[in-house]
Amino acid sequence: MDCMIAASGLVDLLQTTGLIVLVVIGFSAVIFVHELGHFLVAKWGGIRVERFAIGFGPRLFGIKRGETDYCINLLPLGGYVKMTGQEDFRLEQEAKPDPRAYNNATVGVRMWVVSAGVIMNVIFAAILLTIVFLVGVKFPPSQVGNVEFGSPAWKAGIQPGVTVTSAAGDKTVDFQDLLLATALSKGGQPVPLSYRDLDGRQREADLRAEAGPIQGLPYLGFSPEATLQLPDSLDPQSMERFNKLKERYVVSGDLKLNDRIVAIWADGQWRPVTLLSDLVRQVRGGDGLPFRVRLQQKAKGDGGEIHEATLRPELPDPSTAKDLSLFGAHPSLRVEGTVPGKPADGKLLKGDIIRRVSEIDYPFFEQFSQAAQAKGGESMAVDVLRDGKLVTTELTPGKRWFESRETVGVELALSTQQAVVGQVDADSVLGRAGLPGGAIILGIGGPDRTPTTQPDNAPISWGEFHAGLRASAGGAATIVYTLGPDGSQSSLKLAVPALDKWPRSFTFNPPPLPFENYEVIYDAGGNPLRAAWMGCQKAWQFIMQAYVTIDRLVSPSSKIGMKHLSGPVGIAHASYKFAEAGWVKLLYFLALISASLAVLNFLPLPIVDGGLFVFLIIEKIKKKPVSIKVMQATQIIGLVLIGGLFLWVTWQDILRLLVS
What is the pTM of this model? Predict the structure, then answer.
């Protein structure tokens, strides 16, 4: 057994090493073609090239051919072409006896030399993408798998399963296009969408993006489509999460790796489901009670073993569900877990219901989070309901050196399995009927049904509460509740609106199982000319996205800030993930990097090619070069700014990796 484990570890190490080598080769290729552009045009213009180097720092190895030293340096973070008369960070403008010196070339030739690297990066991106579309690449399409409760898309009535065809005026091909169009939208301005609904009709909508859960970037509330296929294997950490999900959501039967949900029992019959959007619509159309599914093991041939399981639905994410209420009654917060080593670890337990924090009874998620941040290192009292008893504890919010805000380290969800009411809107059906905040629902009955309660007076679930109200729609209902672990039972009667008058203010979701992504192949059908056209289009899209990103970074109304930038660490991490997904996706990512590098390199900033080009334009207009003192000063300032930006984005990359 030890030998098998050691062999498996060796295989993993070799695979990881191979992926890292592949990424390094890919980035070196991007740098190589950029410097090759400078080199070829310099040679064409008759300029003497002393060195063609990949990387910085000490020279590792190379070869000298003619007047040029071709070498690889220690740090593979860039590269340069050294021409006589030009140094990397200072242009020498003194008279040169060598007629082939850079500064003795015409302004037009020097413009071509400076811009050649950028041009080569654009061409390289188009070539890589041509290969990608000739072979075919899989990506999630712009089809919506789920719409988060309370999001802009939810408010617009967009249903899971629709396909977005354009966003912010740009044609969307895959889901990444949709995310980018949303993230790059200007603050406060609507994002115009075109989408194809479930009946195939084309529709339009203007949505205002809101700050989303991913670093506060603008989002519309869409989740990508997914299959209903569970993976055939998981790493140990993911397997542990999967087992916890089964413990929480499986009522009967079992979920196994390699299972695929093929049908759901609804309206007295088995209804086939193939995608996440199908399952979401069926669960949301139900009454909130556990639902039966039919599963099939993935197998070759005619199919594998079929079995059944009963799953429990869940309420939406509390961070985005402040408006979630059942006729005015908001579900309370429930502790799902704690972060080891954080203040809540060992003090709050899984299953605790948050009763009070900082004098707020049954707080919303946002109120709990704000209370923790407002304390600024001071302790705060937290009351919870635990196993039928009221428990009070003290928590002192804090943050680790790589965290940006104060937290107590607790994972919160809505109390799906216990209908413990949090706050109640006064002007609502249940508010006007007299249901108080903090009510623990013990039972519900209709005009001809006596409310039944659990033998131990345990609360019913929100699904049972919801189903009871649906059964009484258009009539009357009696609700039995208590106000605390030791409180006496009370009851109230209310007139339940008819189903066609129920607002879309309460919903359930399927369990968040690790379904595999739904992806489609994007290719040119084997046509090289079409592949080249698609490659050029995508390269142009990458270039425009880079320019729009820069515009949003400097725009005061934009939600994109410096914290959203990635540096070498973040790019390396992302490229490694793409390499894991296969060489075709790695080429796609390298094309993105090459196109983005072209844009960044041609910005009118000192040090980069765009800054040098600006100096040449000034020289062309004034008929004489910019003074060497001005050039040196701007380049030093540019070096400091770019160096500072480099350190900043690297630091942000490290923080993101540590937090994740």
Answer: 0.80
